[in-house]
Write a structure and sequence with these properties.
By secondary structure, the protein is an alpha/beta fold. The protein has 14 helices and nine strands. The strands form three sheets. It has a five-stranded parallel sheet, sandwiched between helices.
Amino acid sequence: MPIKIIKKVITGYRFTALMVMNILVVFLLLNGLMSLVFLFIDHDDTNPVSNRYGHSAVKEVYPGWSDEQINVLLEETWSRPYIYEPFTQYKERAFRGTYVNVNENGFRESKNQGSWPPDEDALNIFLFGGSTMFGYGVPDDQTIGSHLQFLLEQKLNRKVRVYNFGRGDYYSTQERILYESFLTAGVIPDVALFLDGLNDFPNLANVPIFTNRFHHFFAENEPGGADLSFIFNSSLGRAAMELKSMMSELKRELDGHAQSDQDIPFEPDLDGEHKLNPQDIVIQRYLKNKKMIEAISKSFGVTPIFVWQPIPNYHYEQKYHPFAPDGYDEFDSAKYGYERFAELLQEEPLADNFLWCADLQKDMTSPLYVDRVHYSGSFSQELAGEIVDMIDRRFLLSRID
């Protein structure tokens, strides 16, 4: 009897070992295959603009540039992964390139970049915003920051130093937190300028883009739970996460087709006293961030300036936009948010430190963007010039100088 039991145990062990071995081999093979797939995907991601829209469309918005120059610029723009930063989740990684240079202190370098820490004898201006402020798709000397510094030095006839803290996917809440972190550290500019609009409306939930990853991190490391991080960090785990993200996006798309973008279900505001549509939720959040920035700026003696930026799907003739046929995906909602904000401003204008630049491109008849949403160097110059002119007309320069 014991011999039969021992034989059954041995047989069961062999079967189990064989199954585990087979599963492990299949996992390793599939993981290796997915690693190769992601190797090609990641290589393509270093220049997603040309891969998505084609070389001819991209060539059109870089007049006078060679193919090699365009490829180098776009690879330097899109091949830089973010790096972790407390409170805001992430920042642009320090980088040295031909056209794109990010200082180790977190700012995109401009033409004639000032030293760090800032020179107290200069007029120091900190810029905050998303990738449009950073200048995705344009070289260092063609960003909004570079043009602002040059134009303001001409206007004021004194040394001006701009520090461009624009960061990919940042929106008003992250910008406020980043600004507060500088003030807390004792790094206080003369002027803080915020460029917003594009990234606020897609972010109804008011969370940075890597929030889900942090949720997964804590779920993987719960006390008493199995450590499955090796699976999530593998290529198969990445594939599973990508698939989950695609399914979630598909569900949102299908849900969105059941109703128009202007007929989004109402959600309660934080007080629970009124019903607000998504556009109003985002606008009210922006105004609250603005109010907090103004309050803390007053305490520290900083002049805050708020710019509502142009976007390609609001008051811009689409026939001049070579990247428009693909649509705007997550940025579609921004158009309706802008329309709603314009209505509210007609009823109750904001203070002089708020600059509405959303109509800047209304009568322009040339390509202004180097991809779906990012400004060309010439349009960055136009926007910088408009900002300086509006600051001048509203006598903000006298307060700054």
